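Entry 14. Structure prediction run on the chain below.
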Amino acid sequence: MQQKCSCRFLCGADTSEAVLQRVEKVLESKQECQTEVCFYKKGGAAFWCLLDIMPIRNEKGEVVLFLFSFKDITESRGKSHPGDKKEGEPWLAGPSPCHRRRFLPQNVFESKPSVPEYKVASVQKARFILLHCSIFKALWDWLILLATFYVAVTVPYNVCFTGTEDSPSAGCFALPGADIALNFRTTYVSHSGQVVYEPRSICIHYVATWFFVDLIAALPFDLLYVFNVTVVSTSLVHLLKTVRLLRLLRLLQKLERYSQYSAMVLTLLTSMFALLAHWMACVWYVIGRTEMESNDPLTWDIGWLHELGKRLEAPYINSSVGGPSIRSAYIASLYFTLSSLTSVGFGNVCANTDAEKIFSICTMLIGGEVLSAGLFSWSRGQIRAF
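Output returned:
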C-alpha cells in the first residue's frame, strides 16, 4: 500500500485530530493502543473503525514491526445510539471523549500483557542432532570431499599402473563409517522448505536417498588382504575398490548447493576436468600394456609404449622387461590425454594402433563436448548478467 502507518490517508472531515496525534505518539513511544476513530473509505463513505495497534518485538526485546487491526463498528455504534441518527443520513457519532479502550483478557498473575514476538521459533530437537548448515558439517563435508578425490585418484592409478597390494589404513574404514553415522543424525530441508529435526524422518530420508551409495562405497575390500584371501586376485580386488568412486555422485549436491558462488563452481569443475584426464591417462596406459602383452614380443613394436621406451633409451625386452619407468609412463599418458582433451596435441605422443586411435577419437570428442558445454554455460551467464 506504501502509505504512512499514521493512517492520515484515511482521514476526513469528521476524523478527530486528537486521535491521530495520539496514534503518532503511540508509534513514536512504541506502545500498545486501542481506540475508536472515524475513517473514510476510498469512495468517500465514512465509517467508524476500532483501531488496534500492537508492537511486535524480536528476541532482543526490540520493536521491529507494528500490527494494525481495523474493524468496522459503524453498525454496532448505530444500534447503540439510535436516537442520534437523522433521517436520510448515515449515522456517525462523534469521537468518544475518553477514547474507550478494550483490553485483551489476561492472566491476573501476569505483570505484563502478552505481546507478540517476531523471531525464529525455537524447535525442540532430539539429542545429538547435527544441523546441516553448521560450521562443523561444512568442514566435515569438505574433508569427505577431499578424501573422495584422493580415492578417485589413487584407486584407478593402483589398478592400472602398480597392481600392488595396498596396506589398509584405519582412515579407509573410519571416515566412510563416521560419515554414514553422521548422516543418520543430520537435519535436512524438506520439499516444503522446513528443516526436519525428527530422528525417524531423518533416517527414512537418508535411507531413501544416499545410504546405499555410501554403504557400497564404504565396503572394506582391503580386509581381503588382511585375512589372506588367496582365491581373489589382486587385480580383482583393485577393480572392486573402484566402486568407491560412487561417492563422486555427491559432487552433484555440492554443485547445486554452491551454484551461487562462481569461484567455488569453477574450482569444482576444474577439479573434475583434471580427474577426467587422470582417469583417461590410466585407460591409455592399460591399452598400451594390453596390446603389448597380446602380440608377439619379437615382431610387434609399434605401440605408444614402445615408442616412448625408444625415445627415453629404455626399450622393452620381450614386452616384459625394461621399458620406461612407471612415473615416466604416467606423465606421458597424462600429457597425451590433456593435449587431446584440449585439442592442442603436438604429436610427440601419438596413437599408432587401431585401439589407440579409437581411444584418441573418443578422447577428442569428450574434450570437445566438455569445452562446448563450458562455453555455452559461460555465454548463458553473460546473457543473464546483461
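The beta strands are 33-40, 46-57, 63-72, 188-189, 195-196, 316-317, 321-322.
Filed with the rest of this week's runs.
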